[in-house]
Amino acid sequence: MILAISKEIQMRKSEFENEVVETIYFGGGTPSILSIEDLKFLIDAVYKNYNVTNNPEITVEANPDDLFPSLLFRRNLFEELKIIGVNRLSIGIQSFFEDDLKMMNRAHNSEESKKCLEIAIQYFDNISIDLIYGIPNMSNEKWLQNIETALSFNVPHISSYALTVEPKTALHSFIQKGIISQPDDEVAQEHFNLLVEKLEENNFIHYELSNFGKENYFSKNNSSYWLGKKYIGIGPSAHSYDGEKRGWNVSNNALYLKSISENKLPSETEILTKTDRYNEYVMTGLRTIWGISLNRIETEFGKSYLDYLNQQAAKYIEDHLLFVDENILRTTQKGKFLSDGIASDLFLLNLE
Questions:
Q1: Which sign does the torsion angle of CA 130, 58, 249, 227 carry?
Q2: Among residues 24, 60, 53, 63, which one has the least CA distance to residue 233?
Q3: pLDDT bracket for residue 341 (50, 70, 90)
Q4: Which residues of 211-227 are buried (b: 16+ CB within 10 A; e: fewer)?
Q5: Concatenated DSSP letters of 147-195
Q6: Between vectors from CA 66 to CA 164 and to CA 130, what angle results, nearest 5°?
Q7: Are the beta carbons of 170 and 198 closer than 8 angstroms?
Q8: Cα–Cα distance between 67 and 115 in angstroms, integer?
Q9: H or E element: which one contains 123?
Q10: Residues near 124 by beta carbon (within 8 Å), at least 6 away in sequence
Q11: Distance separating alpha carbons of residues 220 and 170, to the nearest angstrom
Q12: Which residues pair with 292 in a beta bridge?
């Protein structure tokens, strides 16, 4: 698989021959189970085939149960990651409470989370952690304790998501059997409001619906998606975007390996219509502090799109969920949690 991924990196270099790579992101699963040698091999492959900026953001997603045990075997995975050029960690903490982790079927425990962070902050300045809110039976007090614990480690970035129940998971089974109650939207909204308030008190900027960063610590990788920059996704299931079309690789590992071995890219593509691009800009714009530029809507999509957007947004402006400032449409504090639902109402459905 590593050789195939490396080969795909090489096969697709022509797509970026006029671009500069600003970020390299290992995610979409648990890349921290790879050996340091494998990670270095793939980073080197990017440098060999692409024009990479002087100081790219290189992120590895990791779980505490992959990072912490290495120390028990007298290996310092944090130091090794830093040596090969990784300069940002995204750690899937989810919760600092044992009962939450068990309920979500996580492999790590609370103690491993804390020990992992204690050591990680000695080696990395740029660390993001994930926290889940809206967990059944989680009180506001308990949620605030989770946030306080995260803040005690002085991490500069926090990503936080409402608990979602996926089919065929242990959590889904527990809910069906009545062992755990269904997540409550009102509880999730309360938790979200507490999160925003607490993090903003501590100098975090709420720059995207689910992301909070201190100044100069926004995720460059994720910000690129939201700002509509080009990106190449490598490996099974990976998605790519070049401004006009979107592509995605086959998700089946065996089919992916077979295709690469035959020197064929294992991907499908779709050309985005003007309406597709408008809808995507509306969706990403409303989720971020950059909002939706009404000037850009008119320039890039035309007056009919601008008129439609203004017409659809009017009721949300009246309800104090949206506002316009310097020709930028943004969500109010009250509208932030509802931004995805509001965006869907601003979409244009009569595709061209």
A1: positive
A2: 24
A3: very high
A4: bbbbeebbbbbbbbebe
A5: HHHHHHTT-SEEEEEE----TTSHHHHHHHTTSSPPP-HHHHHHHHHHH
A6: 35
A7: no
A8: 10
A9: helix 110-123
A10: 78, 82, 87, 88, 89
A11: 34
A12: 329
Distance CA(23)–CA(85), nearest Å, equals: 12
Instruction: Kindly give the interhelix angle for 2-11 and 253-261, rounded to the nearest 10 degrees.
Output: 50
Q: Cα separation of 331 and 15, whole Å?
A: 35
pLDDT for 311-331, tens place per residue?
Answer: 999 999 999 999 999 999 999
Is 161 a residue whose pLDDT tops 60?
Answer: yes
Q: Round to whole Å and give the CA distance between 332 and 325.
A: 11
The mean of the pLDDT values for the chain is 92
**pLDDT tens, residue by residue, 130-155:** 999 998 889 999 999 999 999 999 99
Nearest CA to 259 out of 1, 39, 28, 46 is that of 1
Distance CA 56, CA 314 (A): 41
Which amino acid, residue 318? Answer: E
Other Cβ atoms closer than 10 A to 186: 8
Residue 352 clears pLDDT 90, i.e. is over it: no
pLDDT at position 76 is 80
Within 13 Å and on the Cβ side, how many CA atoms surround 291? 16
* 312 CB burial (10 A radius; 0-12, 13-18, 19+): middle
11 and 17 Cβ atoms separated by less than 8 Å: no
